[in-house]
From TrEMBL:
Protein keywords: Disulfide bond, Glycoprotein, Protease inhibitor, Secreted, Serine protease inhibitor, Signal
Record flagged with keyword Disulfide bond: yes
Predominant subcellular localization, coarse grouping: secreted
The Alpha-2-macroglobulin domain, residue ranges: 663-752
A Pfam family recorded for this sequence: A2M_recep
The keyword Secreted is annotated on this UniProt entry: yes
Protein's UniProt name: Uncharacterized protein
Any one GO molecular function term: serine-type endopeptidase inhibitor activity
InterPro entries in UniProt: A-macroglobulin_rcpt-bd (IPR009048), A-macroglobulin_rcpt-bd_sf (IPR036595), A2M/Complement_sys (IPR050473), A2M_N_BRD (IPR011625), A2M_TED (IPR041813), Alpha-macroglob_thiol-ester_cl (IPR047565), Alpha-macroglobulin_TED (IPR011626), Ig-like_fold (IPR013783)
Protein source organism: Pygocentrus nattereri (Red-bellied piranha)
Length: 1364
């Protein structure tokens, strides 16, 4: 009612954390009787009393109540009832209770990784006070850029508050954004990092330019280049300043952006590009008002000043116009001219202007003006001065409160004074007092409150002054405090103000970390001085600064941690707690006050239940007509939602540098009861600055240390330049360059270590010690001539010596640390010609004793000194494959089929060792390591529909998808494989099944010789059905059942040996005995036998190729896959195994991928069936000149025993005595001149280039591949190009050549994968190579071509430099 003078105010946060201790503040003003005031929390018609007071006089106080526990959030109401004899009133406002999840963050050691590197990561969970929680994570996932799960950890708990795990990326990992996710129940936290191929930058370039640039001033750009170890980079920089054109819709003309280029002398051997953007502004200057009064009274004069400036500098003698009104229709009042300080004074007589307020404008333009596009302009000054009138509830409020600024951020632990200025105008009451009430909020809760009384004794129209209160700023107030002040004036008007102050981001757990000393030389011992709350566990991380040059700002620091908080400060209400307003019935005079007070409350997130007019009504009803108010409201809290993840003593005098990590330290350290510890570390060899990030956890909370740095610097260092490999007979100039980074001169002496493997001839000047002054460099040279084949170590040292010599008029100095720098590099020396390998293997099972004879023969044209031979013995036929589990074939494996083929033998070997009790932890770890990287690599070839193809492009391949399904299914036992990858492959295959049960073949066969007299669909159906049976599906499974019926219908007319053998194995798996017997009988009739061996081939003409191995292996699998294996079965199997073992290559594989996979599966099954855990044998290998004895027993069955053979060429005998089978292999390696004979697959090469340059020549190798065999085309073909010594290849053009699927560079070879070579069509290719280092007597290099699945189809040729 209009005559109420009693007011109440109840304030509380609009959003309160569920279950917290919440603060509620009440004020009662001017009570004229005894009143009862009750505050209720109302929800679902339930009232809970929060406060009940009987009051007789004014008061302000705050009390606490326990917020209800809610799931998610719940909107409730706070109702205030005030009752007296003559007064009764109820008001209510909404409040939201909200539960916040704990905060989880994931930290990775780096923001960016090269494929093949290890991703180290930690997961930590804490509450909103940063107190760590012992947390179990139901699931941790690592996903690649295509959404494939490549790593998964389930039910991981943090024993010591920090979960620390790692994952090795596979060297062919695809590039893009990867994601780590941590799940607690169904709540997840994410962290992203990038995988890309990069080379670390050695220096950083910074460009300083203004954010804004006025068009008529000079643009100043500052460019700085600095090495990561702090030294400046000398060189040239190209600076471009370009202005982008904005293409407007509908413009078709292309305009080249204008650029200005400048080359400035700074420094750079490697180039780094850095760009920055500058906003161009056309604002030339501005006019502003100074010293204006806040308001004016009747018949007075307004005095003031105008100032004009350009870029903040005053302009004298400038014409300025004083106008009245608005920019669209101003009225000119006065013409002014500025004085020497850019100021012009004016007076306006207000008798001429009777009104409630006056709007003034200061402009350099006399009337209406419009800014032209891209033309310089001046900004106008504007001011509104109101007429001073008595304050009433119905007139605008001109009184105001303001909070003074402070220096931010406010340091933790300080006590500050917050000053509030008041300016009260137009109050007519005499001798009154008012209370300025203040509330301080942090993280959405009231943390401090109070009030200051202002007494007004005299009756003045204008009262100014200030009050202040003290605030202790502690850790709990970080990162922002929000201050609200308000007061009620005698005129019933409320005035309010708010301000946010940033507080230093500090923690209860104070952590500090320093390196001691803070500068180091490579290889030195250093100490980390770590201090934190006693009992803390700390996560330490030190990364090369170069990583952060590439990906700046992605580190764990205080900002990132505070960024996790659900609420840091509040700037608005959630729209669900905004109360709807009813319409107000008004008398004509009442002015609808604006929402200044309401918006001020909202800006700090406080609700106020009051009967004061703090918020203008949404609408008014006047004389029965409703008037709506235009209203725009906002929503939301600042601060991210919970659970958002991150965006992440003197050393030795001599140093040999070989340890260059990107992540140096990644470890956990405990701080004991003393609160400090010292962690000894060894400084790596990289010359850079290490960036250290540290956080610690204790029961008191989390703490983050300020970043620490260690600068690693060597006074001088040495660089060697030499090629990767050379051919015997070639020589090159070994160069050693010494750089001096000291500010003084040194005398440096360079010495190569003596070696029997090569000779060094001094170069022309023969001087190997020299003066080297500040920032100087000098190169020393020798000619290197190797004397042996193989890998040589080249070692060179540089030493700073004492000397009496004067350099540049100064005595030379000797550094205390880092006096000698030693560099070791390896050089591969190869024999000329082409390398050939001959191997012979036996599985010898003595019943007492057994012997074999072999003559090692060399061809006549063997290259002198290139022959070497060895014999190896194992007690297990799978032992050789186990030793070379990562390299069963000396062939490239850059496509989807080859990769999975290299992966699957791991599984058969693991199964065999596990079934026979021979699997050790070490073998398991090594094999699963290969499985993991192979699994990740295979995903590069996956299609989104679940299928796989040879290069991950084109249509899915049925064979390969079935092969992947079978391999992934079996690998699940040993490593994590995302079940979705297995299901999607299976589903894709099922979709390829026709109604008759046969599968449709899509994509190529790996080996086109599998064909012949059989429908491909029968072979693929047998293969898929066998895969499903191996994975545990039975004939009852409808897919398997239909597959078997398809196969049965085609048995009658089989003429293809390969298909017969595969079907025999499939029916054996299905338990179809009759069909199995029938097929095995048929196979027996066409077997090729002799000398106790048994094998099969696809056709009578060829019986040594990979297909024979594959067919014979399928027969072996079929023979051994039966419910009861008889002695006769084992005897038959033994004859097949004897032949198979003889086909093995020196690495335990066979000639290609498919034969290796099936043969090792069959041999593993055979070995499991015949495994015996007792017995031993001795093996004697001897010739006329030497003899070697080997013992094989149960303890060393898997031990690979090898001895070199000296008697080459020569005759050897092998004698085995004892009771256990042994696998013996002899291998002969030698080189012959590259043969010119041609096979059906043939290659020719010719080189051309410009020989006028003495160095740095670019040569083009033009080569042609031709096939003229019996088939329409070859299988996949590999071209292996050895690069000339001292040259490097640029294979980019080859990649776009016809039929080329992939091109890889490996060391000094380039490998091309060609889909096929069609019959009788020559395919031409070109490879460019560039000279990096000069090599003398340059020898020709070999190019080899071969059919991947039929390796006997091959040819070689040589090419040489036309400039030799």
């Amino acid at each position: 009612s209009d005559d109420v003078i009693l007011y109440f105010m109840v304030t509380f946060p609009a959003v309160i954390e569920s279950g917290s201790e919440a603060t509620l503040c009440t004020s009662l003003l001017k009570p004229n009787e005894t009143l009862q005031m009750t505050v209720y929390l109302v929800h679902d018609n339930q009232n809970r009393t929060l406060l009940q007071e009987t009051v007789e006089e004014e008061f302000h106080h705050c009390s606490k109540f326990k917020a209800p526990q809610v799931e998610g959030d719940s909107v409730q109401e706070i109702r205030v009832d005030v009752k007296g004899e003559s007064f009764e009133m109820t008001e209510k406002r909404r409040v939201m209770f909200k539960s916040y999840n704990p905060l989880t963050f994931i930290q990775t050691d780096k923001p960016i990784y090269n494929p093949g590197q290890t991703v180290n990561f930690r997961v930590v969970t804490m509450d909103k006070h940063f107190i760590p929680l012992k947390q179990e994570y139901s699931l941790l996932i690592l996903e690649d850029n295509k959404g494939n799960r490549i790593g998964q950890w389930t039910n991981v708990s943090s024993t010591g508050l920090i979960v620390q795990l790692s994952h090795e990326l596979n060297p062919e990992a695809s590039e893009g954004q990867y994601k780590l996710e941590a799940y607690i129940g169904d709540r997840q936290t994410r962290h992203y990092f990038e995988v890309k191929k990069y080379v670390l930058p050695k220096f950083e370039v910074t460009v300083k330019a203004p954010n804004e640039q006025s068009v008529w001033e000079d643009l100043k750009i500052e460019l700085c280049a600095k090495y990561t170890y702090g030294q400046p980079v000398p060189g040239k920089a190209l600076v471009e300043v370009c202005r982008k054109y904005i293409q407007h819709y509908g413009e078709s003309i292309s305009i080249i952006s204008p650029c200005l280029e400048e080359t400035v002398q700074v420094c750079m051997y490697i180039s780094i590009t850095k760009s920055t953007q500058v906003q161009l502004v056309y604002q030339a200057g501005k006019a502003e008002f100074l010293d204006l009064p806040k308001n004016f009274e009747q018949d007075t004069v307004i005095e003031g000043k105008v100032i004009t400036t350009v870029s903040g500098k005053p302009i004298p003698d400038k014409k300025v116009y004083l106008l009245r009104g608005y920019s669209w229709s101003p009225e000119l009042l006065q013409n002014l001219t500025t004085d020497i300080n850019g100021l012009a004074r004016f007076k306006i007589n207000m008798t001429d202007h009777p009104q409630t307020q006056i709007s003034l404008m200061a402009s350099v333009y006399p009337g209406v003006h419009y800014q032209s596009f891209r033309m310089p302009y001046f900004i106008d000054g504007h001011a509104n001065i109101p007429f001073l009138q008595p304050a009433t509830p119905y007139s605008p409020v001109y009184s105001e409160l303001s909070i003074e600024s402070l220096k931010e951020p406010i340091p933790c632990g300080s006590e500050i004074s917050i000053n509030v200025k008041y300016y009260i105008v137009g109050e007519t009451a005499e001798n009154y007092s008012t209370d300025i009430i203040y509330k301080v909020m942090s993280k959405g809760a009231i943390v401090h409150h109070g009030y200051e009384k202002v007494e007004v004794k005299e009756s003045k129209k204008l009262i100014e002054g200030k009050v202040s209160f003290r605030l202790s700023v502690d850790v709990g107030l970080a990162p922002v405090v929000q201050v609200l002040v308000y007061c009620v004036l005698p005129s019933e008007n409320v005035i309010a103000a708010s301000k946010n102050f940033n507080v230093e981001k500090c923690f209860r757990n104070k952590v500090s970390l320093q390196f001691s000393p803070t500068e180091a030389v490579p290889g030195e011992e250093n100490t980390l001085q770590l201090s934190a709350q006693p009992g803390s566990l700390c996560g330490l991380s030190a990364v090369d600064q170069s990583v952060f040059i590439m990906e700046p700002g992605k580190r764990l620091n205080a900002d990132e941690v505070f960024h996790l908080l659900p609420v840091t400060s509040v700037s608005d209400y959630d729209h669900r707690v905004e109360d709807e307003l009813e319409c107000l019935q008004v008398r004509p005079r009442r002015s609808a006050n604006d929402d200044h007070v309401y918006n001020t409350l909202k800006s700090v997130g406080l609700q106020m239940v009051t009967n004061l007019p703090v918020r203008a009504p949404q609408c008014l009803i006047y004389k029965g007509i409703r008037y709506n108010r235009q209203y725009y409201g906002g929503i939301g809290m600042s601060g991210p939602a919970s659970g958002i993840g991150f965006r992440q003593g003197y050393g030795p005098i001599e140093t040999v540098r070989k340890f260059f990590p990107e992540t140096w330290i990644w470890q956990l350290a405990e701080v004991g009861d003393s609160g400090s510890t010292q962690v000894p570390v060894t400084v790596p060899d990289t010359i850079t600055t290490w960036e250290m990030d540290t956080f610690c956890l204790s029961s008191k909370g989390l703490g983050v240390a300020p970043p620490a740095q260690l600068r690693v610097f060597q006074p001088f260092f040495l660089e060697l330049s030499l090629p990767y490999s050379i051919i015997r007979g070639e020589e090159f100039e070994l160069k050693a360059t010494v750089f001096n980074y000291l500010s003084k001169c040194i005398m440096v002496k360079v010495t190569p270590a003596p070696s029997s493997h090569y000779t060094l001839k001094a170069s022309s000047d023969g001087e190997y010690s020299s003066c080297l002054c500040a920032s100087g460099r000098k190169t020393f040279k020798w000619t290197l001539v190797p004397s042996v084949l193989g890998v040589l170590k080249v070692t060179v040292s540089a030493e700073a010596e004492q000397s009496q010599t004067v350099c540049d008029n100064e005595i030379v100095s000797v550094p205390e640390r880092g006096r000698i720098d030693t560099v070791i590099r390896s050089l591969l020396v190869q024999a000329e010609g082409s390398e050939k390998t001959k191997s012979q293997s036996w599985l010898l099972c003595p019943q007492g004793s057994v012997s074999e004879e072999l003559e090692l023969v060399l061809p006549e044209d063997v290259i002198e000194g290139s022959a070497r031979a060895s014999v190896s013995v194992l007690g297990d036929i799978l032992g050789r494959a186990l030793k070379n589990i990562d390299g069963l074939l000396k062939m490239p494996y850059g496509c989807g089929e080859q990769n999975i083929a290299i992966l699957s033998p791991n599984i058969y070997i693991l199964q065999y060792l596990e079934n026979t009790g021979q699997l050790t932890a070490a073998i398991r770890e090594r094999a699963t390591g290969f499985l993991k990287s192979g699994y990740q690599r295979q995903l590069n070839y996956k299609h989104f529909n679940g299928a796989y193809s040879t290069f991950g492009t084109g249509e899915g391949n049925t064979w390969l998808t079935a092969f992947v399904l079978r391999t992934f299914g079996k690998a699940q036992r040993y490593i994590f494989i995302d079940a979705q990858n297995i299901d999607s492959a299976k589903q894709w295959l099922i979709n390829m099944q026709r109604p008759d049960g046969c599968f449709i073949r899509q994509g190529r066969l790996f080996n086109n010789r599998m064909k012949g007299g059989v429908n491909d669909d029968v072979t693929i159906t047998a293969y898929i059905t066998a895969a499903l049976l191996e994975l545990g599906h039975t004939s009852k499974d409808p897919v398997v059942n239909k597959g078997i019926s398809c196969l049965k219908s085609s048995i009658g007319n089989l003429t293809n040996t390969y298909a017969t053998a595969l079907l025999a194995y499939t029916f054996s798996l299905a338990g179809e005995h009759d069909v199995r017997e029938q097929l095995l009988k048929k196979l027996d009739s066409i077997a090729i036998s002799g000398d106790g061996h048994l094998h099969w081939s696809q056709s009578a003409s060829d019986d040594s190729d990979s297909l024979s191995v594959e067919i014979s292996s399928y027969v072996l699998l079929a023979v051994l896959t039966t419910a009861e294996v008889t002695a006769a079965d084992l005897g038959y199997a033994n004859r097949i195994v004897s032949w198979l073992v003889r086909q093995q290559n020196p690495y335990g594989g066979f000639s290609s991928t498919q034969d290796t996979v099936v043969a090792l599966q069959a041999l593993a099954l055979y070995s499991t069936k015949v495994f015996s855990s007792d017995g031993s044998s001795t093996v004697t290998v001897k010739s006329d000149k030497e003899s070697h004895d080997f013992d094989v027993n149960q303890d060393n069955k898997l031990l690979y025993q090898e001895r070199p053979l000296q008697d080459v060429p020569g005759k050897y005998s092998i004698l085995v005595k004892g009771s256990t089978c042994v696998s013996v292999q002899m291998v002969l390696y030698y080189n012959i001149p590259t043969p010119a004979e041609t096979s059906t697959l043939h290659i020719k090469a010719k080189t051309e280039g410009d020989c006028t340059k003495s160095f740095g020549q670019i040569l083009a190798i033009n080569f042609t591949v031709i096939y003229n065999g019996a088939l329409n085309s070859t299988n996949m073909v590999i071209v292996d190009i050895k690069i000339l010594s001292g040259f490097t290849a640029d294979p980019s053009d080859l990649r776009n050549s016809p039929l080329v699927e992939q091109v890889d560079s490996k060391d000094d070879h380039v490998l091309m994968y060609i889909k096929e070579i069609p019959k009788d069509i020559p395919m031409n290719y070109q490879l460019l190579i560039k000279q990096l280092l000069p090599v003398k007597n340059l020898k020709p290099a070999v190019i080899k071509v071969y059919d991947y699945y039929q390796t006997s189809d091959q040819s070689e040729t040589v090419y040489s430099s036309p400039c030799v």
